[in-house]
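TA notes, week 10

Several of you asked for a full example with nothing omitted. So below is the full record: C-alpha cells for the whole chain, then the designed sequence directly under it. When grading your own attempts, check the secondary structure regions first.
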C-alpha cells in the first residue's frame, strides 16, 4: 500500500520529535576534547576536537570551581561556570557545572536558561529558591546544606540568600555545555538597543520616570 503524504509527514514528525527535546546533540565518539587552538573562522555547535589520541587526564579535570567568586556587585552573587576553556573534556557531553556564591542577602535575580534544565544543591547557608511555571504558579523551597532543587528548562527562577549576616554557597548541574542565561530585569531594562519606553510602561504598568530610574539602576 502506498503511503499518503500525510502519513509520511506524521512518521517523520514522530521520528524527529524525541530529538527536539534535547539540549545538546549526542556525541558520536567517546569524547571530543575541545581544541583551544582551533581557528575561529567558522562557527559550529560546540568546539572542534583535538586528535583523540592526544587527550590526557588534565583535559577532563578542572579547579575552576575551587575558589570563591567576587560577590561585590549589584546583586551580591557570582556564578562560575565550567566551559570548554577551563574543562575541554566536557565538549559535546551535554552538561556543565556552576559554582554559585551568594553574599549576605545576595540574590541570583529571576533568570532563565534557554538550553538547559538545572539541579542545584545547597552546600552552605540557607537559600530560598523558586521557579515560576507557564501558568504563573510559583514553586519555592528554602534549602539547607545537602538539600537539592530542580529548575525546569527555560523557566524563570531565582536563588536568594535569606541570611543577612553570612554568605551562602550552591553548586548547580546543567544539562548543556552552553546553557545560556537571560536575566529578566536586565533583558527588559538594559538591552542593547533599548526596548521603547512605551512598551515597558505598558508592560509593567509604570511611569516614564520609573523606567528611567530602573534603567539607571541596572546600567541600561
Amino acid at each position: 500500500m502506498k503511503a499518503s503524504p500525510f502519513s509520511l509527514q506524521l512518521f517523520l514528525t514522530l521520528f524527529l520529535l524525541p530529538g527536539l527535546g534535547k539540549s545538546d546533540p549526542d556525541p558520536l565518539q567517546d569524547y571530543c576534547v575541545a581544541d583551544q587552538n582551533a581557528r575561529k573562522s567558522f562557527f559550529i555547535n560546540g568546539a572542534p576536537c583535538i586528535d583523540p589520541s592526544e587527550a590526557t587526564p588534565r583535559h577532563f579535570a578542572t579547579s575552576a570551581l575551587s575558589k570563591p567568586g567576587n560577590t561585590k556587585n549589584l546583586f551580591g552573587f557570582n556564578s562560575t561556570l565550567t566551559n570548554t576553556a577551563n574543562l575541554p573534556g566536557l565538549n559535546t557531553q551535554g552538561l556543565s557545572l556552576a559554582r554559585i556564591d551568594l553574599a549576605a542577602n545576595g540574590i541570583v535575580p529571576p533568570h532563565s536558561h534557554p538550553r538547559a534544565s538545572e539541579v542545584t544543591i545547597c552546600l552552605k547557608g540557607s537559600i530560598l529558591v523558586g521557579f515560576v511555571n507557564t501558568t504563573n504558579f510559583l514553586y519555592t523551597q528554602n534549602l539547607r546544606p545537602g538539600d537539592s532543587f530542580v529548575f525546569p528548562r527555560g523557566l524563570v527562577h531565582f536563588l536568594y540568600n535569606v541570611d543577612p549576616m553570612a554568605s551562602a554557597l550552591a553548586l548547580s548541574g546543567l544539562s548543556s555545555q552552553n546553557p545560556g542565561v537571560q536575566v529578566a530585569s536586565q533583558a527588559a531594562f538594559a538591552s542593547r538597543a533599548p526596548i521603547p519606553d512605551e512598551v515597558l510602561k505598558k508592560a509593567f504598568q509604570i511611569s516614564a520616570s520609573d523606567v528611567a530610574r530602573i534603567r539607571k539602576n541596572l546600567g541600561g
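The chain has a mean pLDDT of 89. Use that as a sanity check on your answer.
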